[in-house]
Amino acid sequence: MSKSRPHFSPERFNRELLRWFEGNARALPWRATNHWYPVFLSEILLQQTQVEQALPYYRKLIDRYPTVYDLAQADEQELLTLWAGLGYYARARHLLKAAGEIVARFHGQFPSDLKEALSLPGIGPYTAAAILSIAFGQPLPVVDGNVLRVVTRLFALRDDIRQTVTKNKVRGLLHEIIDDKAPGAFNEALMELGALVCTPQNPDCQSCPVAGFCLAKERGLTGEIPFKSPPRERRRAAHFVLVVRFRAKFLLVRRDRPGLLSGMWEFPVLETRRLIHSNQKIKQHVQALTGAAVSKLTFGPELQHIYSHIHLRYQPVLAELEQAPRTTLTDRKAVWCRAEEFERYAIHRAHHKVLEHEETAAWFSS
DNA sequence: ATCCCGTACG
DNA sequence: CGTACGGGAT
């Protein structure tokens, strides 16, 4: 390291970085202890999720499941309900499975061996390194989006941070630099620096504790580094979202797994090529679904929801039944419930917007 | 409209 | 190694 980069001294770098972290670390609830369980829970939540967004969910979850034993015994539907709105719902199911395995295979202790940690569902290279370094003091570098940004700028690397090889390269570099005495603090400090100072746009180099080491700053390249290849175009989709009502009760259905939003509850959906009102088709669909005729259709405003890989446009439609539905109540994938009961179901964000939108919210108030 | 953020699976 | 998988901030 120091031979090929004479300007760079890991010792001095770590000293500046860790001193900055001591004075600037945010007081996050999972930092109040060294126990692995809060670290584990928070790191799963922080996958693809920023701290501010994860915080309220962390509080709900740690409160409901204070130990790994509580989590291992959790009801999956209840966990998904607490998770609803956060996205990447596979995380919640993996979290539950992992807790079960930690109890069953590892006597309630998080495995301190990297291979064993990686064998747990939902634990990949980032999360394993985070937990093992922070809670067990192991010198394993974490490579998340923040770290990629900080390190590529530090060494002026123009590699595409979307690619796996780049992540491995950065991990290799950090392996030479990581502070063996305080690997957890080193990792957290690097991520905190990326989140608070070395930000994607307009990094605050003036207050950066390691600006003196930064080649991107020296060469005026913080605008071009990190380089990230353009994302693939989103597939476009269009749905009618069918709010089926009979006597103040609404039909909810649970999505099959695996697949998008699997295990989550939603209003029945009619996929369509274009959002053209075809009343006949919609009525037929609802009748096939419920075995009851539709007395009235009301069209709500067009809404949209952007996923990483899908651009969804959808239109809520209130379908009122003129006779009692035949849908069986014992079907575990369909339920008729009152609006006040929606909060008991894990309803994903796109359909939750229908409950919130001012034009459609009235459909649910009796 | 464009950016941010890790893991599973084939 | 490429693709599927959500939601929020700016």
Q: Report Rg.
A: 25 Å
Which stretches are poorly predicted, pLDDT < 50 over at least 5 residues? none
Classify the helix fraction into a percent range.
Answer: 40-55%
Arithmetic mean pLDDT:
92
Total separate domains: 2
Beginning-to-end CA distance, first to last residue? 69 Å
**What is the structural class?**
alpha+beta
Estimate the strand proportion.
5-15%
The gross shape turns out to be elongated
Could you name the CATH topology of the largest domain? Endonuclease III, domain 1
Topology pattern, helix = H, strand = E = HHHHHHHHHHHHEEEEHEEEEHH
What is the correct CATH architecture of the largest domain? Answer: Orthogonal Bundle
- The total of beta strands comes to 8
Please write the CATH class name of the largest domain: Mainly Alpha
What's the name of the CATH homologous superfamily of the largest domain?
Hypothetical protein, domain 2
User: How many alpha or pi helices?
Assistant: 15
Reported for the largest beta sheet, the result is: 8 strands, mixed
Describe what this molecule looks like in 3D.
It catalyses: Hydrolyzes free adenine bases from 7,8-dihydro-8-oxoguanine:adenine mismatched double-stranded DNA, leaving an apurinic site. Its EC number is 3.2.2.31. By secondary structure, the chain is an alpha+beta fold. The chain has 15 helices and eight strands. The longest helix has 17 residues, at 90-106. The chain has two domains: 10-218, Endonuclease III, domain 1 (Orthogonal Bundle), CATH 1.10.340.30; 235-364, Nucleoside Triphosphate Pyrophosphohydrolase (Alpha-Beta Complex). Strand 1 and strand 2 (249-254) form a beta hairpin. It binds a DNA duplex (10 and 10 nucleotides) through residues 46-50, 52-53, 85-91, 94, 121-127, 143-146, 163-165, 200-201, 228, 231-232, 258-262, 305-310, 348-350.
